[in-house]
Design goal:
The structure holds 3 protein chains of 3 kinds.
Chain A (H helix, E strand, L loop, with lengths): L4 H10 L4 H19 L2 E4 L2 H16 L10 E5 L26 H8 L3 E6 L33 H8 L5 E6 L5 H7 L2 E4 L19 E6 L2 H11 L15 H5 L7 E3 L10 H16 L3 E3 L7 H19 L17 H12 L2 H14 L5 H24 L1 E5 L15 H5 L6 H6 L3 E9 L2 E8 L5 H15 L9
Parallel strand pairs in A: 2-3, 2-4, 7-8, 7-9
Antiparallel strand pairs in A: 1-3, 4-6, 5-6, 5-10, 9-11, 10-11
Helix pairs in contact in A: 5-6, 7-16, 10-12, 10-13
Chain B lengths: L2 E10 L40 H13 L7 E2 L2 E4 L9 E4 L13 E7 L4 E14 L3 E4 L9 E5 L6 E7 L6 H18 L10 E9 L5 E6 L2 H20 L7 E6 L4 E4 L12 E2 L5 E3 L1 H8 L6 H10 L4 H8 L2 H12 L4 H19 L12 H12 L5 H14 L9 E2 L3 H10 L1 H8 L4 H13 L3 E2 L2 H13 L2
Helix pairs in contact in B: 1-4, 2-3, 5-6, 6-8, 7-8, 7-9, 8-9, 8-10, 11-13, 12-13, 13-14
Chain C lengths: L6 H11 L5 H18 L20 E2 L21 E2 L2 E5 L5
Antiparallel strand pairs in C: 2-3
The chains are: A alpha/beta, B alpha+beta, C alpha+beta.
Chain lengths: ~475, ~475, ~100
C-alpha cells in the first residue's frame, strides 16, 4: 500500500519515523525543486520549524491528542499567518505580516500540523493558472512548460512534487479544483459556511471557502476534519452538526448523474478519460445516469464573474497606502492612494476592479449585479434539486493543462476555464476534484458535486474510487 | 418668511460597551491613540465584521421608544468612498435603496417643549445603525491647507445611530428641543452619555420659501444647532429678499465666528456603489427586541408622567427628568414615603442650583443626597419642625459637602433676641437704614446670621422681622 | 463591438476605483473591457425576472453574539516607523486635490 498522510501519521505517532527526519527531508525537497517550480512564496526558518517539532514531541509525550501531529502542511498565501508574511500574491501586501492567525491556521497548529511555508497564487486569488502572481509564476511539476492551474497553483504544485503532505488553498470559482485536476492531486471545495473565512484575504466573500488539498481522498478527509467547524468570528459560518451524518448509512449505494452540459464541450482526451473512469466504477456497481441536462450552465460564467468582480472591487478598496507596509509617494492623499494602487496592483486585478465598479454603479447595477444575484438563485435552486437525487459528475476543466502564456492574453479564454467549477460556488454545494487518469502524461481530473453538507458522501465516493484506480499519492518525478 | 428644517442626527452608542462589529470599547476617549483597535475595526484583510448583540439591542430600543415601524429583518450594506479615516474605504451602514434594511423604517419623535409645556411631534423618516470612522488630525489644523494628516482609529467601528427627520421642524428652538429630547431618551435607555465630547453631531437641512435646500454640517451641540439654524435662515432670507436665488449646496458651521461657510463643492456627484454586505447575513429583530425590553426601560415621558401623578407640576417634573439621577432619586424617595412636592422642590430647584454653582458634576448620582436623607428632610418640613427656607439655607449647603445619613440637624433658634441684640449693637447701621440706605439692611441681616451661626435660621424671615422692628422707629 | 471605450464611463470607473492608466495602457484595457462586458451582458436578461436576489447562499440569518474575544493589536508591526508619529499614522494630505 502506498504511503499517504494517514500512514505517515501512524508512523510518526508510533515512533517508527522520526518527525525531524521526515520534516527535514521535505525541506531538502523544497531546496532542490522549488527553484524551478516556484510553488512557495515564503518558507519557515529551520529554527522555527525545529521549535515547532519539539513542541509537538512534548505534546505527544504528555499524551495530548492531536489529529495531524508532525505532518507537513503548506498554506496558500492569502490565508493569514502571524509568523510568516501574507502577501496574497500581490506587491501591495509585500512584507505584510498579519498580527493574527486565520482560524484554520490556529486549528492546524493545535492539531500538530507543521506549516512549512506559504504557497504561490494568482494575485488576490484572481486567476486560473497562477501566472498572475507578483512573485513569479508557478510551474506544473508534471510538465514545467505548463501551468499548474490556479489560483491555488502553488498549493497544488507543492503537493505534486512531494514537498508537503497536506495543503490549504481557497476556492472562489474552482481555484482548488482546477489545480488539483492539473496536478493529479485532490481538492475539496466545502459547503459554503462550513470552514471559517476568518483570516482569508477576501476576493469574493459570498462565493469562496478555504479548501483542503492532498494527494489522496483519505488524506483530504484528515485535514477537512481539522479545519471544518462553526466559528463565531465569521458571521457567514454555519453551525452544522456534522456528527449526525455518521449515523446515516453511507452504504456505497451511490447514484451519479452526468448532465450533458458538464462534459460535452471538453477536449476529446478529457472526455474519453472521464468516460473510461465512469465505466470502470459503473462496473463496480455504482448507478450512473447520462441523460440529464443542465441548460442554465450558459448563465454560470456571467453570473459568477459579475458577482465576483463586484465583491472584489469592494474588498480591494482598502489598499491605498495608509495601513500596510507598502505605500507610494504622493503630495496629497488622493495622489498617494492612486500611485500606490497603480504601482502595486497587477493588470488583471485592476481590470476586475474596474468591471466590479461598473457592475455596482448607478444605471448599471440592475442589469449587472442585481441580475446576477437573481441568476444565482435560479442556478442554486436547480443544483439543489439535482443533488437531491444524485451526485453530479463532471469534467473539471474543458482543456488539458495549457502551456504557460497560452490562456492569459485573452480574458474570455481565461475565464472559460472555470465553466464547470463556478457552479458549485454559486450554489454553495461541496465539490471534490480528483484524478481520473492521464493523457500524454498530463493529469486529467474529474469533479463530483453533492448536496449541501454532504462532504462525507463525496469523501466516501472518492475514497472508493481511488482504491479501485490506484490513482493516489502520485508524485511528479517519482 | 416660511422655512423648512430637517435634521440628520448622528448619535454614538457610547454606552453599548463594544464597537458595532468587534469587542473593542465603544467609549474610546480614555485610550491613548491607536490602542483601542483590533483586526476588525482596523479593516485588516481577512478580518470579518460580526454585529454585536448589545448595540443592536440598544438601537432597537430607541426605535421602539419612537414608535418606529421595526422591520422583521435588518440588512447591512457597504457604502464606498476613499477617505483616510475609513480603514476599508467603505463604511458598513443600512441603506434601504440598495437592498439594505434599517432598524427603523418610519417613526415619530415626540418631544417636550419646556417653553410651552407641551408635547410636539416630528415624523422620523428612518433610523439606521452604522459604524463611525476614525479621526483625522491635520498638521496645520486646517483641512484645506495641511500638508499632512494624522490618523487615529480608536473611534473606527464605534456604533452610530443615525436619526433622520422629515423637514417639518417648526423653529430653530424646536430643533434644539427635539434633539435634546432624543438624546435624553437615549440616555434613559442606557445607550448614550450625551455629555461626552463628540458623542453626537447634527447635519441640518434648511430651505426658505420653498427654495433649494442647503445642508449645514458640523454642528456639535444643541446650542450651536439653534444658532446655526437661526443664522442660516437669516442668511437665506436676506438673499431671497434681495431678489437672489439659493443654490443647493453644503455648508459648514463655524461655531467660533457664528456663521455658515461654503464647503468646497465637489465636481462629481458622490456615488457610493451600495450593495448588501456579503459578510453579514440578515438579522432577525424579534428576539433581540424582546431581550432588550425585558430590562424594563423607561422613557423620559413615562417617568415625567409618574412624577406629575404625585402632584408635581410639569415644569418641575421636567426639571427633574433632564437630570436623570435627580429623577431617579425623586422616585426612590417618594416610594419610601418622602413628601413629593417638597422632595421635588429640593431636587429640581434648590439642591440642583447649589450643585451647579459648586461646579460638581450634576449627573453624578453620588453628588446628590440619598433617598433616606431626602425622606428625613421632607418630613422635617412637612412636620413643621423647620420651614422650607430654613432647610434651604442651613441644611442643603451642608449636604453638598457631606450627604451622609447622620446629618447633624441644626438647633432651632427663636431669632427675636438675636435681632434685638443686633439692633442695639449696630446703631450706625440702624441709622443708615432709617435714613434710606437699603444695603444697611443686608448688613444687619448678615450680623444676625453670624450670631446665629450653626443654628437653623431663615434669612428671609429675619429680614422681615428686622424691617418690622425698625419700622416701629 | 466598438474598440474604443466611452470616455465618460471609463473616467467615472477610474475615479471610483482610484486607478489611473497611460493612454496606451487604456487602449489595450478598453479592448479587454469590451470583451468582458460582452460576457457579463449575458446576465442582463435575468434582471426583468421576478426572482428575489440571492446575497447569502443559504438565505442565512445571523444570531448576533455578545462577545467573541478578538484581541486588540498594535500598529507598531504593521506600519513602518517613519509613518508613525506619536502613535498616529501619518499620511500626505493637502486637501482633496
Amino acid at each position: 500500500m502506498k504511503e499517504t498522510a494517514v500512514t505517515i501519521i501512524e508512523n510518526l505517532r508510533n515512533g517508527s519515523v522520526d518527525i525531524e527526519d521526515y520534516v527535514f527531508k521535505k525541506i531538502d525537497i523544497i531546496r532542490k525543486k522549488d527553484i524551478v517550480i516556484n510553488a512557495y512564496i515564503s518558507i519557515d526558518s529551520e529554527d522555527f520549524i525545529l521549535e515547532r517539532i519539539n513542541e509537538i514531541k512534548r505534546n505527544m509525550v504528555s499524551g495530548i491528542n492531536m489529529k495531524i501531529p508532525g505532518i507537513v502542511v503548506s498554506i496558500k498565501d492569502n490565508i493569514s499567518t502571524n509568523f510568516l508574511p501574507t502577501t496574497a500574491g500581490s506587491k501591495i501586501l509585500e512584507n505584510y505580516v498579519p498580527p493574527y492567525n486565520a482560524t484554520v491556521v490556529e486549528k492546524i497548529l493545535k492539531e500538530g500540523g507543521i506549516i512549512i511555508g506559504k504557497t504561490n497564487l494568482d494575485e488576490f486569488a484572481m486567476g486560473s493558472t497562477t501566472e498572475f502572481s507578483a512573485y513569479g509564476l508557478t510551474r506544473n511539476p508534471w510538465d514545467i512548460t505548463r501551468v499548474p492551474g490556479g489560483s491555488s497553483g502553488g498549493s497544488a504544485a507543492s503537493l505534486a512534487y512531494g514537498s508537503c503532505d497536506l495543503s490549504l488553498g481557497s476556492d472562489t470559482g474552482g481555484s482548488v479544483r482546477l489545480p488539483a485536476s492539473y496536478t493529479a492531486t485532490v481538492g475539496l471545495k466545502p459547503t459554503y459556511g462550513t470552514v471559517s473565512r476568518y483570516g482569508l484575504i477576501p476576493y469574493a466573500n459570498s462565493l469562496e471557502q478555504i479548501s483542503p488539498m492532498a494527494r489522496s481522498v483519505k488524506d483530504l478527509a484528515l485535514i477537512w476534519d481539522v479545519i471544518k467547524g462553526y466559528d463565531e468570528k465569521d458571521a457567514t459560518s454555519v453551525n452544522y452538526d456534522f456528527k449526525t451524518i455518521n449515523n446515516k448509512t453511507i452504504n456505497n449505494k451511490f447514484k451519479i448523474c452526468v448532465p450533458n452540459e458538464f462534459i460535452e464541450d471538453s477536449e476529446q482526451p478529457i472526455k474519453s478519460t472521464i468516460y473510461k473512469l465512469l465505466e470502470k466504477i459503473e462496473n463496480e456497481g455504482i448507478d450512473i445516469e447520462y441523460e440529464g441536462r443542465f441548460e442554465k450552465l450558459k448563465y454560470a460564467l456571467p453570473t459568477y464573474y459579475t458577482i465576483a468582480f463586484a465583491e472584489a472591487a469592494s474588498n480591494l478598496a482598502r489598499y491605498d497606502g495608509k495601513l500596510y507596509p507598502v505605500s507610494s509617494e504622493g503630495f496629497s492623499y488622493k495622489e498617494m492612494s492612486e500611485n500606490t494602487r497603480r504601482h502595486n496592483f497587477g493588470l488583471e486585478v485592476k481590470k476586475r476592479i474596474l468591471m466590479g465598479v461598473l457592475a455596482l454603479s448607478e444605471g448599471f447595477i440592475n442589469d449587472y449585479y442585481i441580475a446576477a444575484t437573481k441568476g444565482r438563485r435560479i442556478i442554486r435552486d436547480e443544483i439543489l434539486n439535482m443533488t437531491k437525487h444524485c451526485i453530479i459528475a463532471s469534467s473539471v476543466s474543458p482543456i488539458l493543462p495549457p502551456k504557460i502564456g497560452e490562456r492569459i492574453k485573452d480574458p474570455l479564454k481565461l475565464y472559460a476555464m472555470d465553466i464547470y467549477t463556478v457552479v458549485a460556488n454559486l450554489a454553495g454545494v461541496p465539490a471534490l476534484a480528483m484524478p481520473a487518469g492521464f493523457y500524454n502524461n498530463l493529469p486529467v481530473g474529474i469533479q463530483f458535486m453533492a448536496g449541501p453538507f454532504e462532504e462525507e458522501k463525496l469523501l466516501a465516493l472518492g475514497s472508493f474510487i481511488e482504491e479501485k484506480t490506484g490513482l493516489y499519492n502520485l508524485i511528479a518525478g517519482d | 418668511m416660511k422655512y423648512k428644517i430637517g435634521l440628520e442626527i448622528h448619535t454614538q452608542l457610547t454606552e453599548a460597551g463594544t464597537k458595532l462589529f468587534c469587542d473593542c470599547d465603544s467609549n474610546y476617549r480614555k485610550y491613548e491613540t491607536n490602542t483601542n483597535i483590533c483586526p476588525v475595526c482596523l479593516g485588516l484583510p481577512g478580518a470579518l465584521p460580526v454585529p454585536r448583540r448589545n448595540p443592536l439591542k440598544l438601537a432597537l430600543l430607541v426605535s421602539k421608544s419612537f414608535d418606529c415601524q421595526i422591520p422583521e429583518y435588518m440588512v447591512f450594506t457597504r457604502k464606498h468612498y476613499f477617505y483616510p479615516d475609513l480603514p476599508k474605504n467603505y463604511q458598513i451602514t443600512q441603506y434601504e435603496k440598495a437592498g439594505g434594511i434599517p432598524v427603523c423604517l418610519k417613526g415619530i419623535l415626540k418631544y417636550f417643549d419646556p417653553d410651552h409645556l407641551t408635547w410636539k411631534n416630528v415624523t422620523l423618516r428612518r433610523m439606521n445603525i452604522e459604524e463611525d470612522p476614525g479621526k483625522t488630525e491635520y498638521s496645520e489644523g486646517n483641512i484645506i491647507l495641511s500638508e499632512y494628516a494624522y490618523l487615529d482609529y480608536n473611534r473606527s467601528g464605534v456604533p452610530l445611530l443615525e436619526v433622520v427627520t422629515e423637514p417639518e421642524i417648526p423653529t430653530p428652538r424646536d430643533a434644539r428641543k427635539a434633539v435634546e429630547y432624543l438624546l435624553l431618551t437615549m440616555e434613559y435607555i442606557g445607550a448614550i452619555n450625551p455629555r461626552l465630547e463628540g458623542s453626537f453631531r447634527v447635519d441640518a437641512n434648511v430651505s426658505v420659501e420653498e427654495g433649494e435646500r442647503v445642508e449645514v454640517k458640523n454642528i456639535g451641540s444643541t446650542l450651536d444647532l439653534e444658532k446655526a439654524l437661526k443664522y442660516e435662515i437669516f442668511r437665506q432670507s436676506k438673499i431671497v429678499e434681495e431678489g437672489g436665488k439659493i443654490k443647493r449646496e453644503t455648508r459648514h458651521w463655524d461655531s467660533i465666528r457664528g456663521v455658515t461657510k461654503p464647503l468646497r463643492s465637489k465636481e462629481m456627484e458622490e456615488e457610493y456603489l451600495y450593495f448588501p454586505d456579503p459578510d453579514i447575513p440578515a438579522i432577525k429583530t424579534e428576539q433581540l427586541l424582546k431581550e432588550a425590553m425585558s430590562n424594563n426601560f423607561m422613557t423620559p415621558e413615562t417617568i415625567m408622567n409618574r412624577i406629575t401623578m404625585y402632584g408635581v407640576s410639569q415644569r418641575i417634573a421636567w426639571s427633574l427628568i433632564t437630570v436623570k439621577p435627580a429623577a431617579e432619586l425623586f422616585l426612590e424617595s417618594v416610594r419610601i414615603g418622602s413628601d413629593p412636592k417638597i422632595t421635588a422642590r429640593i431636587l429640581a430647584i434648590d439642591y440642583k442650583g447649589l450643585l451647579k454653582k459648586s461646579g460638581k458634576n450634576i449627573y453624578e448620582k453620588s453628588n446628590w443626597p440619598n433617598k433616606q436623607v431626602l425622606k428625613l428632610l421632607s418630613s422635617l418640613v412637612s412636620s413643621k419642625s423647620y420651614t422650607y427656607d430654613e432647610l434651604k439655607y442651613n441644611i442643603l449647603p451642608k449636604l453638598l459637602d457631606n450627604n451622609y445619613m447622620d446629618l447633624v440637624l441644626p438647633e432651632k433658634v427663636e431669632p427675636t433676641n438675636l435681632i434685638i441684640s443686633v439692633i442695639n449693637e449696630e446703631k450706625k447701621a440702624v441709622e443708615d437704614f432709617i435714613s434710606g440706605k437699603k444695603e444697611a439692611l443686608d448688613y444687619l441681616v448678615g450680623k444676625v446670621l453670624k450670631k446665629a451661626k450653626g443654628k437653623a435660621i431663615d434669612p428671609k424671615t429675619i429680614r422681615k422681622m428686622i424691617e418690622m422692628a425698625l419700622a416701629k422707629h | 463591438m466598438s474598440k474604443k471605450c466611452e470616455e465618460d464611463l471609463i473616467n467615472k470607473l477610474l475615479d471610483l476605483s482610484r486607478l489611473n492608466f497611460t493612454e496606451e495602457e487604456l487602449e489595450k484595457l478598453c479592448n479587454d473591457i469590451n470583451e468582458i462586458r460582452s460576457l457579463l451582458n449575458k446576465v442582463s436578461s435575468i434582471s426583468s425576472l421576478d426572482v428575489k436576489p440571492l446575497y447569502n447562499v443559504w438565505d442565512g440569518i445571523l444570531d448576533p453574539p455578545s462577545h467573541v474575544g478578538i484581541e486588540k493589536i498594535d500598529i507598531d508591526n504593521l506600519i513602518p516607523n517613519e509613518r508613525i508619529i506619536q502613535n498616529k499614522i501619518k499620511i500626505p494630505w493637502k486637501g482633496e486635490k
